[in-house]
Design goal:
6% strand; two-stranded antiparallel ribbon; binds zinc ion; 215 residues; 66% helix
């Protein structure tokens, strides 16, 4: 939950950090700001969702894959003559700069990275952002499992209100620029998940009752 609490770390080093501004009454000039204890519990339940679903490890793995694959592709592309030709380097002349410079040719690396791999990098950054947004939804769903669904909704509304945030954003813009879904999108996903959970529990109870009737 940005600007109020977050989870970080992996393996034996994992922490949930809560900002003091999340706590009700932290501000003497604005005593109405902050969350009551139950809503803070809901926020912590959300952060536990990141821990339970191993979001730190998954995010780190994805980020490293992106970085390492970018380096490998840059190194591979730097020796491709077509890159130099495309940017006007004389690769077919006897004294061509590419022939005399060996494999570690800096201009080739710069061209490969700045003009070609940037697109690749942007693509992965967008994928990383979409992954982060989905992690938020999964962490919310874990808070619902712990029984904090409605309280988390109240907490999210209060956080946005306290920070005078805007509750909505254009979905396309948000997908590319926000690593958290906007409030309305998040509330909608929370309510959908709670509704589905209630329905599946009702069906489970009905099945159990039917089975008892048959015995
Ligand atoms: Zn979160």
């Amino acid at each position: 939950m940005h600007s109020s609490a977050f989870f970080y770390g992996f393996l034996g080093f994992q922490k949930v950090v809560i900002f003091a501004r999340l706590i009700e009454g932290h501000s003497h000039s604005h005593p109405e700001k902050g969350l009551p204890n139950r809503q803070i519990e809901a926020v912590v339940a959300h952060e536990f969702g990141h821990w339970r679903n191993r979001h730190s490890e998954k995010g780190l793995l994805f980020w490293h894959f992106m970085q390492i694959s970018t380096v490998i592709l840059t190194l591979w592309l730097r020796s491709k003559e077509i890159i130099y030709q495309a940017f006007g380097f004389p690769v077919d002349q006897p004294n061509a700069i590419i022939k005399n410079s060996g494999n570690m040719y800096l201009p080739g690396m710069l061209i490969a990275y700045y003009f070609i791999l940037r697109m690749y990098h942007h693509f992965f950054q967008t994928m990383h952002q979409l992954q982060q947004r989905e992690f938020e939804i999964h962490a919310d769903q874990y808070a619902i499992q712990l029984g904090y669904g409605t309280i988390l909704e109240q907490a999210l509304i209060k956080i946005v209100k306290d920070h005078e945030g805007f509750p909505s954003a254009d979905l396309l813009y948000s997908l590319f620029h926000h690593n958290h879904p906007c409030l309305l999108e998040r509330l909608q996903r929370l309510q959908e998940h709670q509704h589905n959970r209630r329905n599946s529990q009702i069906h489970q109870n009905q099945d159990q009752n039917n089975n008892r009737g048959l015995q």
